[in-house]
Design brief:
The structure is a homodimer.
Chain A lengths: L12 H19 L9 H8 L6 H10 L7 H26 L9 E2 L2 E2 L1 H5 L1 H19 L8 H15 L4 H11 L6 H26 L4 H28 L2 H4 L5 H4 L5 H28 L5 H12 L3
Antiparallel strand pairs in A: 1-2
């Protein structure tokens, strides 16, 4: 595969992932607490814990391994916080996206969606509170993170989540139902809706580890290609996977007349496009000449080949 | 009135307010732009511009006048950003709060609510994007604010907006319909639901102007008393004002069987309690021995005596 160093073959990705997932789950569980006014922490924990693939946190942590920070322990702490922050933003977006006024989905990760389980009002508030908590995590009260890093991470996350990122992409998505989009229009939607946060995950991890400006550009390319590949694969899976494998209702896109890469390029065309994007992600990593990119390489492979 | 310096009598509050409102409206209009994916900026602008009393921004700007910052221009810029950030959080909370799954209100500031005007999905997304934008404003990309101040403001805002602040208070509110609350329980709800953001407004303004730690404690007291007074007056107004004066549907609380200070203390009792809280706010200002508290004094008077 182009650009992948030979050393990556020896990388124990399963072991790495298990270790990092343990780190993320423990941190999320400690920061999203049940102890809360009117039990609002319960739908928050339900939305966040037990079941996510944690792709975004893994991207943060993998990107943080490519740098040479002056203080590794401080960098690790920052990366854990950034990993959890991007996951909280992702989790809140799913809660709101599943609501009746949006996608009206009743099943998520094989469980009832938050509004089905807790009611719409609690779902709305839990999502709102998760977004606030994401920013809170990035600025610990005890000065554990350098203020410049906290501020930088807050800005990256706000941009990725906001009107010119995820929320704007969802607005395009809503406005596009039943429309015939060009490939460029479809890509713009996905670059905002899911790509921005995936790319921000990479960039935030790199910032935690003090990766240099020039190398950041290559990581940005990696994140952009990977982010788009993720969505193309998602569209493929919506067609080929059944509901049980997917953990959410399959065939929703076609049913709701949403434009997809499959409807635009055909099934095989979409699969080829995903492969090409993953190759580009690998090439960007190679161009960065950064050390310790094995986890980022493996995550790109995972995105390209995932079954759910 | 206790604690109010004689100089305050000469303070041109109307002139001050007009000047600060102009500053806030111009900044909000420039930062909440119409140019956006799928026109999501339109419901965002509709929610934010033209019609708010801007109490929270005025508190930020008034508190920022009490400090002696090393760089006044930089402090003013920070305060403008903080003022707009708290208003965006307030605005998003109103958008979500008005939705059918929450208070189901169709009228706000004399206009159709956002979901009535733009649909529920756009309202949900516009609110989400406004929250993200609030944090974005606090971290300008050009290093215009010191990173330590940006980070501090982000943390204050996240805490005030989140599960142990505004969102948690709204969860208590929802869970309290039809229940008989004690005064302590009612106060806890309001300290979170509206008090936290009002108090944060004062503290964020003070942080922008480098107010010292001991004096911050007094300003914190001021903000707490004022925040609670605001809600007591709100309950009084819900009973005595008509819909046209209020700009929103009057009598909603009694109709929806929500506990209020009026139902707990009676109309006159609630009015007396509001006056006592405003007196405490003035006393906290006097205890701070800060200069230039005339605007904060006048805002407390405004909260105590407002008709809408």
């Amino acid at each position: 595969m182009p650009g992948q160093p030979a050393a990556a073959a020896a990388f124990d990705f399963a072991g790495w992932t298990a270790h990092q997932l343990g780190r993320v789950e423990m941190a999320l569980s400690s920061w999203v607490t049940a102890d809360s006014p009117a039990d609002l922490g319960h739908p928050m924990r339900y939305a966040v814990l037990d079941g996510g693939k944690r792709l975004r946190p893994l991207l943060v942590l993998a990107a943080a391994e490519t740098g040479q920070p002056a203080d590794r322990a401080a960098s690790d702490d920052a990366a854990t916080r950034a990993a959890c922050a991007v996951e909280l933003i992702h989790a809140y977006s799913l809660v709101h996206d599943d609501m009746p006024c949006m996608d009206n989905d009743v099943l998520r990760r094989g469980k009832p969606t938050v509004h089905v389980q807790f009611g719409e009002a609690q779902a709305l508030l839990a999502g709102d509170a998760l977004q606030a908590l994401a920013f809170e995590l990035l600025v610990p009260g005890d000065d554990a993170l350098p203020a410049a890093l906290s501020a930088h991470l807050c800005r990256q996350l706000a941009l990725a989540a906001g009107v010119h990122g995820m929320a704007g992409g969802q607005a395009i998505d809503l406005a596009s139902v039943g429309l015939k989009l060009t490939q460029a229009e479809l890509e713009r939607m996905h670059r905002l809706k899911t790509g921005a946060l995936l790319q921000a995950s990479v960039m935030m991890g790199a910032a935690c580890a003090e990766v240099g400006a020039e190398q950041l550009c290559h990581l940005s390319d990696y994140g952009r290609h990977l982010g788009l590949a993720f969505q193309v694969v998602d569209d493929v899976l919506d067609v080929v996977a059944d509901t049980q494998t997917l953990g959410k209702t399959a065939g929703k896109d076609a049913e709701s007349d949403k434009p997809t890469f499959v409807s635009l390029l055909g099934l095989q065309g979409a699969q080829s496009y995903a492969s090409a994007l993953i190759d580009q992600a690998h090439a960007a990593l190679a161009a960065s000449q950064l050390p310790n990119t094995a986890a980022l390489h493996a995550l790109a492979e995972l995105v390209g080949g995932r079954t759910h």
